[in-house]
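chain below, 374 aa
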Amino acid sequence: MHRFRVVILLMLSSLVLCLPASIRAHEVTPTIADFDITEGRITLLLRMNLEAFVAGIDLDGRANTDTSDKSADYDLLRQMPAAELAPMVRLFVEDWLPDLQMEAAGAVALSLEEVNIPEVGEVSLPRSSVLVVSGEIPSSALYLRLTWPQGSGAVVLRQNGVAEPYTGYLLGGALAPAIAIAGGAVQSPWEVFQNYLPVGFDHILPKGLDHILFVLGLFFLSLRLRPLFWQITTFTLAHSITLALGALGLVTINPAIVEPLIAASIVFVAVENIFARRLHSWRTALIFGFGLLHGLGFATVLGEFGLPQDQLVPALLGFNVGVELGQLTVIAVAYGALGYWFGGYPKYRGRVAIPASLTIALIGSYWFVERVFL
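prediction:
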């Protein structure tokens, strides 16, 4: 027993030593690409994290920039004034733009028209800059296709200025389907649902470590299905409500308020696991409140992707179902790794559930302090 406690203390000590690295953690967000065609010329407006591109970070499949060996360069670029960064951006575009391939009755030559970089603001957040590129579209062209460059992460591609515009989600190296220039390429509700489902799942696995820890906090209260079912159901119902309200713009709360409260919710459920042996009705009510907070966090992410205005419901449903599948995957992995093998042991609570909850509480406490004071 003494040896087991020593191992737990060593694990917690190692975790504390690793936590400061999260100060510079920056979640990778997709580029938003809006395009329209006027008088035979296409204009593509790209809202993107230019510093990550200039630093040479491969964004494909990456959850945050700290996992790259070029994260130090990225951090320096984020603190650089716009006037100093702009020439570096133009040099980057010279190499990158040829990989942004477009076809419309033949290859379309795209050129850089404008670079808009905001001045340095809150350095803990990515700076959203804008590139404007354009090219001539032949009058005979009826459709266009775009290949998003390899290594550029995800992009939300949105058509403007036509009836039934196209909206799609592409990964690095992917080719968009044929998009009708005159409009009418709108996706079916089922296609929109399918497009947004992986977006929701991806926000849990691998990007949503705070949401993962909250779900694990629910899991470690009890392995019995009934308490777990009521907790997950309550949490799901609550975050579905605020996800919809937030994504529709009906409720807006500053992320600087929401994010610390999400960290506090992680601490609460983890600490209560240490002292409670069963699900109390008041915990269920609090989980509902915490779910409302997490839903606002989800809505912020979904707002970065943009929602097709004529397909709001299937987009919301797809994202929400993706989130639920991610949460259920977390529960399944936790049960398969711990619950199935050790849940029947008399000392499971003392040797597994309580140390795990203590670890979760420690991480959540650090995040709360970081998000409020650092």
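Strands lie at 31-38, 41-48, 101-103, 107-108, 111-116, 129-136, 143-147, 155-159, 167-170, 179-180. Residues 16 and 280 are 31 Å apart (CA to CA).
thats it, cya
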